[in-house]
Amino acid sequence: MTTVSTIVFILAAALVAYTVAGYPILLSFLARRSKPIQKDERLRSVSILIAAWNGEKFIAQKLESILNLNYPRDLMQVLVVSDGSEDRTDEIVRSFENRGVTLLSVPRQGKPAALNAGIPLCHNEILVLTDIRQRIHPDGLRNLIACFGDPSIGAVSGEVTILRGASQEEADTRLYWKYEMWIRRNMSRLDSTFGTNGPFYALRRDLAVHIPPDTLCDDVYLPLAGFFRGYRIVLEESAKVFDYPTSLDSEFKRKVRTQAGLYQSLQLMPQMLRSANRMRFHFFSAKFLRLALPFAFIAILISSCGLPGPFRAAALGLQAMFYGLAFIDAWVSEKMFLKRITSPFRTFVTLMTAALLAVKVFFIPPRSLWKETVVRNPTPPRSPAPDVTK
Predict the structure, then answer these.
(1) 165 falls in which pLDDT band (50, 70, 90)?
(2) To the nearest 5 percent, what fractions of the chain are helix, strand and coil?
(3) Count of CB atoms within 10 A of residue 310's CB?
(4) Interatomic CA distance for residues 87 and 56, integer angstroms
(5) How many angstroms separate the CA atoms of 48 and 58, rounded?
(6) Which residue in 155, 228, 230, 138 sits closest to 198, CA to CA?
(7) Whole-angstrom Cα distance, residue 367 to residue 30?
(8) 131: closest CA among 366, 373, 324?
(9) Domain spans in the chain, listed from the N-terminal domain onward
(10) What class has domain 46-246?
(11) What pLDDT digit, counting tens, does each position of 189-206 carry?
């Protein structure tokens, strides 16, 4: 029994170490031999599509952000699909109709259905999808579209920059997102990412496909359809989009949905784990093993009980300290230095719990996992703070 516990403990600990740190470091070395993107300056026609539900707090500032882009208006089609909104979303969008914005109101059926209704009406060369909350840098669209000068590029993500928050947990979720961006940036340099950043991405219009109605991550499904036709999915660092800091509770709900969406992707596209995926090793390391992480932590805890005496005491003691720091964080004041120690532990444990709960997608309607993201202050700053990209 002791031997089995030791083997399980070592294997589970190795999986955690490789997934969290080992693979990202390996990827950063591999990405040094990057595939350059052959950009050009041709201004292609674009159709900007926004799917909105009860977005009255953000839709006006979003449309102003789009209409103030450094891009010719005669090359831009702007379409808002209101997914059965019950607030003033439709009224606000109609007030922009004299500035070239089109509203399509559809019954409430979820984001995939809204996108499926809007995409056939998008007639320009490049399809740009963006969410209502984030503000696009004036040069963001121009920098995004430049990447399509490379015929190997099928889809391009903008780089999401989270503005600084006021709380430690907002700082920690911001740090986690920067970690995610580091991995995606290196994967893009190597060849291709496995999806795009939902708040702001573009793809060739002729690559757009019908999205299954219960799909949780359109920003994965749509780009991957092009990936399996031989195209690259890349991240363009200069195409900035700015988002509000979010609480850990909101990030928890988002993580449940995105990890559940990863389970869906494996169901819808099982070729992700087959030779048809030219980056199968990277998908396995960066995505598939993420799903296994929470189970690895459970295996570490259980197998620790069967380790030889001194090792058992050390392993259980370290885990008690790890989970204890996460547990007490809710009662530690923002003013205390201890908060800087406990908050990252709580953030990590919360996100692992979210990844574990993503298995709910097999037992409940996927649409129920869509939750509204709540931000602390929906009033946008006049301009990005000087240090938002640091």
Answers:
(1) confident
(2) 55, 15, 30
(3) 8
(4) 7
(5) 16
(6) 155
(7) 38
(8) 373
(9) 1-30+270-371, 46-246
(10) alpha beta
(11) 999 999 999 999 999 999
